[in-house]
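re the bet — no i am not wrong, look at it urself. input seq straight from the record:
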Amino acid sequence: MSESHKNKIVVVGAGNVGEAIAYTLMVRKQANDIVLVDLNEDRAQGAALDIAQGTSFFKEVWVRRGGYEECADARLIIITAGIARKPGQTRLDLAKTNVSIVKSITRSIMEYAKNPLILVVSNPADILTAAVTEESGLPAERVIGSGTSLDTARFRYFISEALEAGIEYVNAYILGEHGDSQVPIWSAANIGGVPIDDYVAQTGKILDKETISQRTRDGGAEVIRLKGATFYGIAMSVSNIVERIMKDEKAILPVAHVLGEEFGSWAGVAISMPCVVGWNGIEKTLRLPMTDEEKQAMENSVKTLQDFQKSVNNLI
């Protein structure tokens, strides 16, 4: 691997999400070599050219189309490929199709890459993170699901908006499933270190927790209803994860991976928890103090994913 290409990122899937991610990585200069891989080579080539032709405005970044052989020396591989959910299609049908697609992609990656670091963005994200982990045979910490990172970004945005507080001072998590059973951890939410309930009491602001939780849960559906698809939010969310990895920041992020035996009945489930993320992937999974109600909601979220995983496995 040449020195000039040492920070290579491969993005598998050149659809709206993959292209938006590649563009965001380029603009934020998070890699000096970005490769788009897609079965539709014209789409990948067009996306790469469109992004690359804008790189002349600042320090050169290579953006190009390539094949799976590019995974051999990639610092990070991002999987975005898969079909979007169609009207009338069940989440289970979507999962069945996308699990097959992502398993095939994983086999192609592993044909060339040795111990790669993989970031799974395709939906349903938690199920596909588990599928990539199983198919690749990689340690769980080397396969990261984007999980509830975008849900958490939406959560912080809505809190910031309601309280008229700078979003950089809003600390809050959505954990559990990247889906309907996600869990807002209100008990740990704070504004600049001040517990959120205390902040509300001191400022006299109005905070409707139920409305914010629901808006967060429905955030993706709202955007899809209004414009047909979501891709900028997830691109920024993925870019944030990439930055923490590439800079080895040991950042604490709400991302998913297959939990180990130390999590008891949760073992084997890919679900979002606060994780220490750095150069080598997930370095530590943290347990956040929760209320009894939040703990029960997390149990329900795990059960939802376990049941969903069994249903998918029965169909494949």
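see?? The longest helix spans residues 292-315. told u. also The two ends are 38 Å apart (CA to CA). so pay up
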